[in-house]
Amino acid sequence: MSDSLAPESPTVRAFDATVTRVDGRSVTLDETYFYPEGGGQPADRGVLGGVDVEHVRTNADGAVVHDLASDPDVGVGDEVTGVVDDDFRTYCMRAHTASHVLYGAGRRLLEDLGYGGFGIRAAPREQRASGDAASTDEKVRVDFETSTEVDDDALVELERLVNRAVWDSREVSWEEISVAEARDREEIAFNVKTEEGVFAESETVRVVSIDGWDWAACGGTHVSDTVEIGPVEVLGRSNPGEGLTRVEFAVGPSAIDRRAAVRTSAYEAARALGTNLDGLGESAAGTAAAREELESELVDLKSEVLRSRLADFETVERDGLTWNVGVVSGFDANEVGEAAKEARDGADVDVFVAVGESDAPFVVVASTGDAAAGEVVAEVTDEFGGGGGGGPMFAQGGGLGAPADEVLAYVRD
């Protein structure tokens, strides 16, 4: 039984080992360079003894177990060859190291910083094999515990700092140090979500260092120099829980393709606005302001049209009171309700009734109180179905099961 040798020797892709246990499709070796799922990093992919490795995990006894796609043709004591999927391991090394670089950027930008979680989301095997791993299925997340608001400007600066650290070609190294030393070194970050129990029953802890940039307790696989990470593209942020800000990003080839897609969208937007990339922000802001102004004008115009239509309502006498009644279309119940209240207050009438013509006709009643608006709506819904309610001065109902003209005739009479 042996721990994975992958974290200490992440560049090893092929090895020979002796089988120590076979349990159906699960195989244990005397040593392995396959990385088992853990610490936010997914399990390695590859082949063992000519059979695809579906998963790699650590069992309750601490042994690394390789779950295969089919029954292996090996037994205890046999020597077997393992081949780690180079493309996938390389991606995980880049992604995991990039998460440390991002945390290092956070050290320089965010206040009250702490690790709240980390994870690598990998593209399915078929998608990666087809070369389409640049989709949104493949991304990395880092959850920050911070009191700083991570707004758009902060995202841009985080991305800039990360890519600058990549460009600076900083050495990445790892070593085992004593727990006592790790506790004393304030610069060492501990991801309590993925490295829970990192001090438990252990005299040493593995610390991954990015020269002058970041230091973290971590058991994952990493590149030896930040330049090997390649470009990093921040995808966005979210809030997975109280006090946490999640930043997601793409790395390497995925980031290249993602950046190209964003660039294409930016060119399309600039072309539509009749400007270039440098003027895109200003043009977009101007367009948004113009749209807001037009929307405001449209609201005013609609209100004016609605008031005009209500002013043309028929006046009838019913139960000794003056009623203004009519049908409107093209407006929702809330818009008509507000206009009806204004019309009631500005006209010498006792009851104002508007029937909305739509797929689901509605009725709005505004009254001075001499005829309870809620009772009028109740009469209409009792006759035509639907539901509604309100008080003496105002009420409305909807879902009427009759055309607006038929409802109006009922109210008029």
Explain what the structure shows.
The chain is an alpha+beta fold and 413 residues long. It folds into three domains: 14-84, Elongation Factor Tu (Ef-tu), domain 3 (Beta Barrel), CATH 2.40.30.130; 90-273, Threonyl-trna Synthetase, Chain A, domain 2 (Threonyl-tRNA Synthetase, Chain A, domain 2); 311-412, Diaminopimelate Epimerase, Chain A, domain 1, CATH 3.10.310.40. It has helices at residues 86-109, 125-129, 152-167, 179-184, 253-273, 280-311, 333-346, 373-384, 404-412; strands at 14-23, 26-29, 46-48, 51-58, 64-68, 79-84, 114-121, 139-145, 172-178, 188-190, 204-210, 214-217, 232-238, 244-251, 314-318, 321-329, 351-357, 362-367, 387-390, 394-398. The strands form four sheets. It has a six-stranded antiparallel barrel. Strand 19 (387-390) and strand 20 (394-398) form a beta hairpin. Helix 6 packs across helix 7 (333-346). The longest helix is centred in the last third of the chain and has 32 residues, at 280-311. The radius of gyration is 34 Å and the shape is elongated.
